[in-house]
């Protein structure tokens, strides 16, 4: 894995980013006081690409088996941190193959591929993942973009004439993700509506948005928020007959506490557990560490012990974009202590995960810590949305970095 600069002059780069902003709706190229789209690419060897995809596709199959088992077990859904009011929605949701997931994969210093979390509920990155290959791809030599997110999404939604895009309408970032996918579908002949989940109604004529019958929905509204919707009855009627990308039951895979639950021998076979042990970090429910005082992770619960917490990461079950994630080696005593107070208030929402060392790559900006974002659409590889940071923590301030694969 290496980083190489885009083969563009400064003006060409500026023109590409301008086109990305206005034709692909990527409005937040500049944020946090810096440009978040690097004019550089992360280049994988063919072997690295195949390894990452193989790992993620197997994770996808395992998660499918876990989802099918856990949706029958409301007691275990609670252990995932799923809000009580959301569980009835998950149980009413229909089984479907519709899926758009993105798995965050890291190459460690000891040569392993580790998956830190699954973005199976409302993953983003569509604008960059489609726009940059369109604009930069024809100018490359010796490497190429792999996967085609646009084509994969269109194929998955091809059977549905009218698709409603249901998203958190208060967020412009969410709108830009919906606009690019809406553009793909309308160019392919579908009719669409942009709406909030609160706009859905469902009577004897089926699910409707703004009075129009919708044949499928594209959801970009976090599943754990559904119990706050005022039209919950309409959703309970609609869920058994409305195909959704992504179904609400994908919230099961989204929970970071799933990492601590899959050790149950009744859920997976030995082969799956061995695979997970090799490619997923050791994880513990927060309340289990608190109650049993297991020797090593319990040391992380002492704010005055930097050495004890250095090897651990504290995570909320449904934190997103690095929100509610605190790395022990980067936290001050005060930050760690305050986070533990919060976790002890609702321990069923938190977990401790063993930290792993990420291999860095050299770039024009100095060493970067890369995270490959591997898209799976209907369980098959569909492209990359990768990010990189100047420090070993990926959050909303991380750069987007285009991902290429060597062709020779």
Written description of the protein model:
The chain has 408 residues and is α+β, with helices and mostly antiparallel strands. Among the domains are: 12-36 and 125-146 and 378-408, no CATH class; 282-353. It has helices spanning 10-23, 46-70, 74-79, 87-92, 126-136, 149-157, 172-187, 232-238, 251-254, 258-261, 270-279, 286-292, 295-299, 306-309, 333-345, and strands spanning 2-5, 30-31, 34-35, 37-44, 100-107, 113-119, 143-144, 162-167, 191-195, 200-203, 206-209, 212-213, 216-220, 244-245, 283-285, 312-316, 325-327, 350-354, 361-363, 366-377, 380-384, 386-389, 399-406. Strand 5 and strand 6 (113-119) form a beta hairpin.
Which SSEs are present, and which pair or pack?
Layout: E1 2-5, H1 10-23, E2 30-31, E3 34-35, E4 37-44, H2 46-70, H3 74-79, H4 87-92, E5 100-107, E6 113-119, H5 126-136, E7 143-144, H6 149-157, E8 162-167, H7 172-187, E9 191-195, E10 200-203, E11 206-209, E12 212-213, E13 216-220, H8 232-238, E14 244-245, H9 251-254, H10 258-261, H11 270-279, E15 283-285, H12 286-292, H13 295-299, H14 306-309, E16 312-316, E17 325-327, H15 333-345, E18 350-354, E19 361-363, E20 366-377, E21 380-384, E22 386-389, E23 399-406
Parallel strand pairs: 4-23, 8-9, 8-13, 13-14
Antiparallel strand pairs: 1-4, 2-3, 5-6, 5-20, 7-23, 10-11, 11-12, 15-18, 16-17, 16-18, 19-20, 20-21, 20-22, 22-23
């Amino acid at each position: 894995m290496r980083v190489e600069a885009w083969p563009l002059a400064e003006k060409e780069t500026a023109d590409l980013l301008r086109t990305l902003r206005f034709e692909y709706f990527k409005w937040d190229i500049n944020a946090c006081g810096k440009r978040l789209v690097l004019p550089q690419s992360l280049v994988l060897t063919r072997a690295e690409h195949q390894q990452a995809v193989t790992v993620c596709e197997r994770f996808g199959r395992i998660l499918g088996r876990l989802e099918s088992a856990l949706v029958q077990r409301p007691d275990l859904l609670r252990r995932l941190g799923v809000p009580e009011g959301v569980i009835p929605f998950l149980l009413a949701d229909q089984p479907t193959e519709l899926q758009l997931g993105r798995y965050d994969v890291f190459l460690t210093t000891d040569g392993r591929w580790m998956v830190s979390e699954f973005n199976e509920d409302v993953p983003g990155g569509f604008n960059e993942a489609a726009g940059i290959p369109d604009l930069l791809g024809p100018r490359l030599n010796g490497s190429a973009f792999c996967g085609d997110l646009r084509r994969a999404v269109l194929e998955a939604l091809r059977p549905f004439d009218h698709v409603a895009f249901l998203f958190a309408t208060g967020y412009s970032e969410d709108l830009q993700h919906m606009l690019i996918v809406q553009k793909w579908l309308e160019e392919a002949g579908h009719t669409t509506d942009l709406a909030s989940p609160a706009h859905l109604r469902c009577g004897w004529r089926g699910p409707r948005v703004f009075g129009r019958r919708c044949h499928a929905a594209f959801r970009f509204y976090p599943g754990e928020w559904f119990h706050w919707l005022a039209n919950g009855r309409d959703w309970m009627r609609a869920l058994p007959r409305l195909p959704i990308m992504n179904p609400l039951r994908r919230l099961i895979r989204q929970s970071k506490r799933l990492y601590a639950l899959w050790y149950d021998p009744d859920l997976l076979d030995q082969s799956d557990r061995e695979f997970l042990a090799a490619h997923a970090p050791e994880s513990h429910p927060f309340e289990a560490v608190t109650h049993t005082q297991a020797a090593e992770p319990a040391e992380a619960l002492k704010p005055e012990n930097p050495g004890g917490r250095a090897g651990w990461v504290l995570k909320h079950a449904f934190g997103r974009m690095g929100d509610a994630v605190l790395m022990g080696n980067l936290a001050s005593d005060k930050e760690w202590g305050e986070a533990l107070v919060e976790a002890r208030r609702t321990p069923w929402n938190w977990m401790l995960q063993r930290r792993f060392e990420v291999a860095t790559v050299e770039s024009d900006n100095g060493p970067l810590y890369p995270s490959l974002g591997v898209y799976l659409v209907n369980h098959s590889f569909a492209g990359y949305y990768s990010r990189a940071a100047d420090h070993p923590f990926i959050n909303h301030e991380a750069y987007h970095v285009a991902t290429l694969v060597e062709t020779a």
